[in-house]
């Protein structure tokens, strides 16, 4: 079987590479000629563990290719996936579907026979119907099917999530479409992956509902962490006690500086707008969005408090600026709020991130980017651990302490043990934990 991916960004490239790993012939198409040149040359435009090796292997095997010519790519293809971006629309928070609808128009013009058009992009309820309307209006002479097949890929773990998913959701309303997509995912039958067949609307809403629920869990445990500090409880004990209840589960119950990334911020916002339009407001999700936005500002205040109430004229070292480890994605990262807030309060910033500095440099001004964690801490008045990259979990803490002008460490991810940090002489601040019955304050 041969399929086409329209869009060679994060979702399209990962999905295309993984389908080709299954043995499917895949052509990834993109209008960005520079991106396609890079991909043909073996240069991967995103940071995702294992992706470069997988792409190279399948290109060499002849199963994966890249191009800009959509009509040529569609010749003989059984299915075409729309995997373009759906960012928040400036001004109102709705998902910007212009790229999806443009792709639908171009696919319609290029189809040469019955084609299954699969929306892989995250899109609001009703998008699949509109895609079908656009195609039908453009090409009344060709049979087609529209399918919703949302992705559930975590950045940094995307290949594992595609190859060993919790479930596959397929919104399809013809037997032909179901058969085509079922065949594409047949390799997953061997590991008994649940496959849920629904209508278009159910599949579209499932993606948004899942992301909103996970964002709610993160926001909930962050507020519980704040309460723990006030009453002398330990948020990790609370989270473990909650997570052992199988109705709740322990995933996404880790306190921190708030969620970010390419999905949760835009998807929660888009879902609230969908609720408003449908006359069924989602008050809980609306509150999650507001609380998470405020959380990032509060983290900057936490750093200032740890520095004695002022950072004016001080140098703050930051470890990790991406929204999570194992990605170079800076979209809605907490650092994009915290760093400017510290700068506005008079601080100078030095930072290091294993993969995100190139992207961060485009978004964060007047930051001194360092070659490693230790050079970032040299002579700083405080250290803020913002992203829990593995290499930050086993730092030489004595070396870090001695490099700092003042041994203040604000651990926004609770990577380190408070007792150990205090024993080493740090003025240690963490999130929702206590030391000897006292709050973790410097």
What would you say about this model in short?
The protein folds into 2 domains: 2-198, Rossmann fold; 212-439, NAD(P)-binding Rossmann-like Domain (Rossmann fold, 3-Layer(aba) Sandwich). Helices cover 43% and strands 14% of the residues. The protein has 17 helices and 16 strands.
Describe this structure in words.
- Helix 1 crosses helix 3 and helix 11 (264-278) runs antiparallel to helix 12 (283-306).
- The chain has helices spanning 10-21, 33-40, 51-60, 70-74, 98-110, 127-138, 158-163, 175-184, 200-231, 235-243, 264-278, 283-306, 335-344, 357-363, 373-377, 397-403, 418-423; strands spanning 2-6, 25-29, 64-67, 79-82, 115-119, 144-148, 168-171, 195-198, 315-319, 348-352, 367-369, 382-385, 408-411, 427-429, 434-435, 438-439.
- Strands 3-2-1-4-5-6 form a 6-stranded parallel sheet, sandwiched between helices. A 6-stranded parallel sheet has the order 11-10-9-12-13-14.
- With 442 residues, the chain is an alpha/beta fold.
- The protein has 2 domains: 2-198, Rossmann fold (3-Layer(aba) Sandwich), CATH 3.40.50.720; 212-439, NAD(P)-binding Rossmann-like Domain (Rossmann fold, 3-Layer(aba) Sandwich), CATH 3.40.50.720.
- Helices cover 43% and strands 14% of the residues.
